[in-house]
Amino acid sequence: MIFENSIPEVIVPNKDLTSVVLARVDEFADKPALIDGLSGRTLTFAELRTQINHFATGLHQRGFKKGDVCAVFCPNCPEYATIFLGVAAVGGINTTVNSLYSTRDLVHQFNDSGAKILITIPQFMDRASPAAEECGIEEIIVLGEAEGATPFAELLNNDGNKPEVDIDPKNDLVALPYSSGTTGLAKGVMLTHENLTSNMVLSESINSITDEDSLVGVLPFFHIYGMVLILNLAVYRGVTLVTMPRFDLEQFLQIVQDYKITCLNLVPPLVLALANHPLVDKYDVSSIRLISSGAAPLGAELEDACAKRVDCGVYQGYGLTEVAGACHVNTMPVPPNKTGSVGRVIPNTYSKIVNTETGEELGVNERGEVLVKGQHVMVGYLNNEEATNHCIDADGWFHTGDIGYADEDGYFYIVDRLKELIKYKAYQVAPAELEALLLTHPCIADAAVIPSPDEEAGEIPKAFVVLKGEITPEEIMTWVAEQVAPHKKIRKLDIVDEIPKSASGKILRRVLVEQERASLQA
After folding, report:
1. Closest to 305 (Cα-Cα) out of 520, 425, 424, 455
2. Which CATH topology does 422-521 take?
3. pTM (two decimals)
4. Neighbour count for residue 519 (Cβ, 10 Å)
5. What architecture does CATH give domain 18-319?
6. If pLDDT is split at 50, 70 and 90, which confidence band does 449 have?
7. Gap between the Cα atoms of 272 and 346, Å rounded
8. Which residues of 189-219 are buried (b: 16+ CB within 10 A; e: fewer)?
9. Domain range list for the chain
C-alpha cells in the first residue's frame, strides 16, 4: 500500500537554490534576517543578499568554480547563510562539517569530499589546520583572523558583481553533508539544488509558520535539519532567525525571552529539558506558540508534557539526510489521538511499509521498513555505488532502515530502526567506527559497541570488550575520548569473555542490545 498526502501537488521552482531562497528579499529588505543571539549582530534581508553576492564574487575571483567543494566547518552564526548560499550561487558544493569533529574525522571528510577550500573560525584552527595540510586544502578562510588563513572579510572586498553560472537544479550538486546512512562509516550524501529546494518548499507548504514568527537556530546548520528546515527555510519564508553557536540552556531561554521567539525547532533532549528542567520557570517563555521536534523519535507522553508546561503546540516530523530533510510531518493542531505520530508523508512524495525479510508491501497498522520516494531523495552516496544500491532500489525507493507503521488515516509512527547507528542527542555514531578504534588498543582482543537507552541523550554508546592485557574500563573510555568527537565517546563499558557472533563472523549486536535492555529493566 502506497501512502501520499491528500493536498494537491505543490509546484517546486525549477531554479537554483540561492535564487529560490532569496526570492522574497525585496519584500523584507530592512527586516532582520539573521541575528547573532549572543552579540546581537544583525544582517537584514537586503544586507544578506548583498553579502552573498560579494562572497560569491570573491570565491569566483579566487578560482573557485562550478563543481568545486567548499568545506564549511563553523558553528551557527549569521555568516553561515552567506557562505552556504554564496557557494551555491557559483555552482559550488557545500560539504558541511560537524563542529565537534576531531582532526581525524576532518581528514576523512576532506579527503573523501575532495574539498578545495575550507571555511572555519579561529577557535577551530587547532583541529582544522593540520587536517587541511594533510588533505591538500588549497586555502583556509577564517571568520575573523588566524595565522595561516585568509580573513573572510577579504572575500567581500569587491564590486559584488558575481558571475552568471548555468545551474541544472535536477543534476547539479549543492550540498554534501556526511551521514552514516543505514550502516558503516560516514558517507557523503549527494544532494542537488532540486533536492534541497523541493524539501524546503514542500515542507513549507504544510508548515504553519508565518513571516510574523521568529525562530532560534540552536540545532546545528551542518545537520540536514538545521541546514534545510531552519536556516534556508527561515530566509525563504521571511522569518527572523536568531543563531546560537552551541546549546546552553540558560542562554537558550534568555534568547527566547529577549527576542520573544515564537517557534522552536528542537530534538527530543531539548524537548525533555523544556518539559522538566527547573530553569524554565525562571524565564518568560510565553511567546512560544509552536515547537517542532525531529531527528529522533519523541514519545507521546513527552510531547504532551512539554506542550502542557510551555502552553504551546508541539508536533513532530521524520526525515533523514538522504531525503534532504523531512519526508513526514504532522500538522498543527495535532489531530486527536495522533500524538506521538510523525504525521503524513509530505506533498509530492510517496511512502510505503515493506516486510523486512521479503520486501512485500504491507498495509495499515503493519510494522515494517519505511520506504520513501520523491524529488528530494538524494542522488546517492559519493564514491560509494555499493552503498547507494543497497538503499535505493531499481524503482527509486529509498530504504530508510527505520521500522514503522501507518494507521488508517495515513499517519506514520516510527518505532525502531533496522540500522545499527547510535543516535546520541540526534548525532549519529557508527558502532563499526568505534569498534575499529578499540581493536587498535594493545590490551583489547575484541569489541562490540551498541546503543544503550538514556533518558537525556536518547542513546549513548556502550562498549563490550574482551581483554588481552590489564586495563580498566575507565582507562579505555578515557583513551577513546582523547581520539574522537565528544558525541562519539563511549559512556558505558563492560568487560566480557566473548563477543556474540554469527557463523560468518558478524557481531550479533541485537543479542547485546536485548541483553542491555533486559539488564536495565531488571
Report:
1. 455
2. GMP Synthetase; Chain A, domain 3 (3.30.300)
3. 0.86
4. 10
5. 3-Layer(aba) Sandwich (3.40)
6. very high
7. 26
8. bbbbbbbbbbbbbbbebbbebeeebbbbbbb
9. 18-319, 422-521
